[in-house]
Design goal:
579 residues, globular, alpha/beta, 21% strand, succinate dehydrogenase (quinone) activity, 35% helix, Flavocytochrome C3, Chain A, domain 1, eight-stranded mixed beta sheet, electron transport, oxidoreductase
Length: 579
């Protein structure tokens, strides 16, 4: 079945809906969204803490301070042109969401409420500042609902429960996508002038993660399979406070409200690691501090593998009023009432700083300089590089609305100026063959077993701390798993809602992004932001102040070619990152 739309958005989370909404404001183009899920089930809905914007509603704040924190938090790998655009535009974007009807929490004077968050400071690092605009601890959920309502109102067409299997790219031009209708098993070809990729991250490569089951790096993998680059995949953020053993997120807003991290003796250990802002240090620093406490025997529990997040000194009305969801999570999943007892937490795989490289208008890069015409990306699937080596809390939701909007505007402008490129004959051949290989093959390997081994070994070898030995081991494991994956088949050969088939496809995507991530991390011989190498513990600006560009070697299976792209510097010169 064939469809034709001027602008096609893949993904219905915050960045996808923002792109679709702003593309639809151009009345000369038709806009459609393809999503694996019903839009309001997208993972943006799990974001809890807030959107960072220098509104100054609680105390003095300026966009320059926010820009500085973003660059410093990214350990100076952040592209400063992107950080400047972001820090300015996010202020307007927050007010725009408010005018769309998003129910932000309020101050007594009626203004949008703001609270402190990790890594956000005033006067270029002197003290924490209230910058996170929030809707209790359901900010992402509220953004998703608001943008979906506005997109429906604007006449955007939705294809829900369709899984994209291929990008149609010929002669450096994107001409559409091929997708699988999960409800019927039919393969559909979508012809488009412009495509926006907004399909999220790949946290399901790890055993303990805050990410939903659907975050399997699909579009990163499809892009990579075409010999196109993935940027800075070595930088993967582990959020410090996931529910122990489960990884379900406990928002940084809990520490913004005054929560304290404590070890087995009750010590507030962050005073030793970040004496100025303590528990509100950037996420990479806090995650490493927790791992160090556990390594040195100061963890809690039978296995001494978690620490405590203590909220018990806060008033009940703060805990239950401003953090209702995480209060419910702790009570439901752990049987712990955070009003009365500390909550067991440990770092959880949370966010990809890297992804498909883009310009500040969302144009996808085919190299450090060339673009793929008609193809755009925004959100976690993309790397603009706003987040550098480590994303600050709240900057993910800001990224979605700022760069989602820019990508949607740019895609609509391009689509209004060009005609449709001719589709190649049988554009769906690859996708159809891949489905048939899994449905009718005689392979004896099981995708779920491969996924389990992948997640466990990635957690062991490429998580918070890394070495040459562990990552080299992981590269060998990935080569073996890739070889085994070629022998995978499914037992359910039906067409309608064949989740065994869709999950088998997702395992292939996870293997691809894990390969690019591990190769990029093995190549970077320094520690920076979320990339912490015990064999190269220092940041090395002389040799490594540059972005990694990982390309699949199209001739040698399991080999990754590494290139580089310059970091865009600006008003903030790289300095030691001290908090």
């Amino acid at each position: 079945m064939h469809h034709r739309y001027d602008v096609l958005v893949v993904g219905a989370g915050g960045s996808g809906l923002m792109s679709a909404l702003y593309a639809s404001k151009n009345k000369n183009v038709s806009v459609a969204v393809i999503s694996k899920l019903y839009p309001t089930r997208s993972h943006t809905g799990a974001a809890q803490g807030g959107v960072g914007a220098a509104l100054g509603n609680v105390s003095e704040d300026h966009w320059e301070w926010h820009m500085f924190d973003t660059v410093k938090g990214g350990d100076y790998l952040t592209d400063q042109d992107a950080a400047e655009v972001f820090s300015k535009d996010v202020i307007e974007a927050v007010y725009e969401l408010e005018h769309m009807g998003l129910p932000f929490s309020r101050l007594p004077n009626g203004k949008i409420a703001q609270r402190k968050f990790g890594g956000h400071t005033k006067e270029f690092g002197k003290a924490p500042v209230e910058r996170a605009c929030y809707a209790v601890d359901r900010t992402g959920h509220m953004i998703l609902q608001t943008l979906y309502q506005q997109s429906v109102k604007s006449g955007v067409t939705f294809f829900n429960e369709y899984q994209v299997l291929d990008l149609i790219i010929e002669e450096g031009i994107c001409r559409g996508v091929v997708a699988y209708d999960i409800a019927t098993g039919e393969v559909h070809t979508f012809h488009a002038k412009a495509v926006v990729l907004a399909a999220g991250g790949y946290g399901r490569a790890f055993k303990v993660t805050s990410n939903a089951q659907t975050l399997t790096g699909d579009l990163m993998s499809i892009y990579y399979r075409k010999g196109l680059p993935l940027e800075d995949l070595e930088f993967y953020q582990f959020h410090p406070t996931g529910i122990a053993k489960m990884g379900i997120l406990i928002t940084e807003g809990a520490r913004g409200e005054g929560g304290i991290l404590r070890n087995d003796s009750g010590e507030r250990f962050m005073e030793r690691y970040a004496p100025t802002i303590k528990d509100l240090a950037p996420r990479d620093m806090v995650s490493r501090a927790i791992y160090m406490e556990i390594r040195e025997g100061r963890g809690l529990g039978k296995d001494k593998d978690y620490v405590h997040l203590d909220l018990t000194h806060l008033p009940r009305e703060i805990i239950e009023g401003r953090l209702p969801d995480i209060t419910d999570f702790a009570r439901t999943y752990l049987g712990v009432d955070p009003v009365l007892a500390p909550v067991p937490i440990q770092p959880t795989a949370h966010y990809a700083m890297g992804g498909i490289p883009t310009t500040i208008d969302g144009e996808c890069l085919a190299s450090s300089t060339d673009i793929v015409r008609g193809l755009y990306a925004a959100g976690e699937v993309a790397c603009v590089s706003l987040h550098g080596a480590n994303r600050l809390g709240t900057n993910s939701l800001g990224d979605l609305i700022v760069f989602g909007r820019r990508a949607g505007v740019a895609a609509a402008k391009y689509a209004a100026e060009v005609g449709y490129e001719e589709l190649p004959a049988r554009a769906d051949n690859f996708a159809t063959a891949e489905i048939e290989r899994l449905r009718s093959g005689s392979g004896t390997e099981n995708a779920a077993r491969i996924r389990k081994e992948l997640q466990e070994t990635m957690m062991d070898n490429v998580s918070v701390f890394r070495t040459d030995e562990t990552m080299s081991t992981q590269m060998e494991i990935l080569r073996e798993l890739q070889a085994r994956y070629k022998n995978v088949s499914v037992t359910d050969t039906g067409l309608r809602y064949n989740t065994e088939l869709t999950e088998a496809l997702e395992v292939g995507y996870l293997l691809d992004v894990s390969e690019a991530m591990t190769a990029s991390a093995l190549n970077r011989r320094e520690s920076r932001g979320a990339h912490a190498r015990e064999d190269y513990p220092d940041r090395d600006d002389d040799n490594w102040l540059k972005h990694t560009m990982a390309y699949r070697n199209m001739n040698v299976p399991g080999k990754v070619n590494i290139g580089y792209k310059d970091v865009v510097l600006g008003r903030f010169e790289p300095k030691p990152r001290v908090y």
